[in-house]
Write the structure tokens for this entry.
Amino acid sequence: MGFRKAALNYILKGIFNLICRIDSREYVKALSENKPLLVIVNHVNFLEVPILAAHSYPIKLSALAKAETWKNPLFAFIFNTYNAIPIDREGAFREPFKRVRNAIDKGFFVCIAPEGTRNKNGVLGKGKGGIIQLALDADVPILPVAHHGGEKIWENIKKIKKTNFCIKAGRPFRIKIEGRPGKKERESILEELMGQLAVLLPKDKRGIYSDNNYNDLKFLEYI
């Protein structure tokens, strides 16, 4: 698997560097300075997971991905090589969450997209509450990582033009709460959590999270 991952990583970086100008310095620095944890990332299209994985190598990176992805042989090969964790969005989450905890214990950073689905236009969508349960169950910090530029990839390819793909990283944090959060608390936690992604994006990409600077945090604690 080591040779396979190194070879795939070399190929992917070559392809992505051919069609994109990727600024991953801040992202790689953030991973290097932290122990394995959850990485929340905005979800625009197919690009981000392969780019994040390829540009973090040899740091070990995994990701939660919808189980349907494995129906595509190419994607299945890539995701298996990078130790991705399948999740059935209509099924139970206990087993995938357990695998996330195990992956982190084995030294993997694990990526998850709180939006749950692609936003396609680069504008941050509404987060879903599963990330809260996952973070509390795994009992690990969260690192926000946001990217922009990739939403223009197809438009730029048609113009034979490179796409500027910028990856920004924020400060790692923990969710701080006694016991299990109620509905209103979960909504507030999710608002603050998604805000950590929003502030890393240009203002026109922050979507419904553009009206708050998220400096006054009640349920999150930077580490």
In short: The longest helix spans residues 2-19. The chain has eight helices and nine strands. The chain has a mean pLDDT of 92.
